[in-house]
Amino acid sequence: MSDDSIIHWSKDQKLRWSDFMAEPNPSHEHDALSSIRFFVNPIITADNPDKPRFFSVSKITVIPEFQKKLSWVREFVLGDSIMSKKLLNHEQGHFDLAQEYSDEIGKLATKAFDGKRFPIRGKNEHEILEYAREDALSLANEQVERIKGGFFATLRNLYDSETEFGSNAVKQKEYDARFARLGES
Description:
Blueprint: E1 6-8, E2 32-33, E3 36-46, E4 54-67, E5 72-73, H1 75-78, H2 81-100, H3 102-111, E6 118-119, H4 125-163, H5 169-180
Antiparallel strand pairs: 1-4, 2-5, 3-4, 4-6
Helix pairs in contact: 2-4, 2-5, 3-4
């Protein structure tokens, strides 16, 4: 699965302004926008492997994805090296924040499915498997979007507020130190 418009989070790959490919939104108040979504992978189990009637979602894994074609930066930012460096670091922080909380988001999404079973549809083994995957993915994506709009939005807003969008050097450095530990064993 190679899509050069998406970057999966990696400790070794930092964002560059060239990754921000969208045209800036003139009505948006900020000077840059990082579009971050979550790749969602639900693990499903069937109630009876020989003749399944129901499936359940046993685990949801989420992986942060930076969406290049939906992320943007205003041109004037690129001409100011100090502002550019601070803001790019701050935008990297949004991506790092998504990684920092990806396991927690997966756990919260999985918990929403505790004890729930969903009917399986399809006429043959192939259809049953495909429909169960499709249904589980749809349900899991809906749950992750709810979490992203609530829990994760609160974290993102707190990050922006505390760092003053990267202008508060002390707070930004605190977050940077926290994010530097991501990906360590």
